Amino acid sequence: MTSSASPRLSMLELAPIVAGGDAAQALRNSAALARHVEQLGYTRFWVAEHHNMAGVASSATAVLIGHIAAHTHSIRVGSGGIMLPNHAPLVVAEQFGTLATLFPGRIDLGLGRAPGTDPLTARALRRDRFAGDDFPQQVAELRGYLGPERPGQQVRAIPGTGTDVPVWLLGSSLYGAQLAAQLGLPFAFAAHFAPAQLHQALKQYRQLFQPSAFLSQPYAMACIPALAADSDDKAQRLATTPYQKFLNLIRGDRRPLPPPVDSMDGLWSPREAFAVRGEWLGAAVFGGPETVRTGLQKLLDETGVDEIMLSVDCYDFADRLRCCEIIAGLLPRLRAAKTEPA
Question: Where does the secretion signal sit in this chain (predicted)?
């Protein structure tokens, strides 16, 4: 691949509820963070769908996307992602058709097929155990509602029809990569919590890619955990927040996002430490500016992704803002593969 000046940089948001805080504060912070990264030149601000998690306030994803788009001016706002088997495709088309009508040229629709929650909550969402088996058909139905009206079409999304909201496929395995390639859609890999198949998925996506009316060549994004601070030492202390977050998830404890601690010693077992650092956060880039620059360049060199999306877990909102500033400042020093924008 030929080289271009720098990759695109984007942000994934879960509207984290921190210990001692509440959902109202989390949602205010989401809008403030979006304004902040817009000013820093980030390309996208995506909101993730999760349910029944005490530390996540982004469950009503489309509603939050509208709130954030209304508080920003130019950054693309979208879903990372909408878990399509949780919803009727027509409803999603109406929601995102409405968003695209209100904020033309700024809305992305990232789609996934996981439940985004535990089995009991999935059942409360009216999702049965076979949900997701017909994901390709659901994607096709949804795209049909967002495309031009067809002769004889009896069910339309209003608003939605003719908006052609850009659709991305998201995944943490080979399945999403293969389907995105087959459909000629951009692909985002969820390495922020499941990095194991990142390289293989991207390889298959590029090898199997079929050009479409929407995309003439592959366009891939990797979402990774990132923490940048003014020193390695401070970043490693901040990293104890995501370490505790994933440790709690492993233990089935969905408490709000915890504050950092001086040391994880005594908080986790060696096996848990390996699982958190290696299996969940294996793609993480944590450190001072130069450490983060080296880590991001390594990611770009090894994967050739066109865009990096950051997942930033910080207890203190000021630390999140500073992290985004530091990484934006590193962007001119990063080299990316040159491919078609999405």
Answer: none
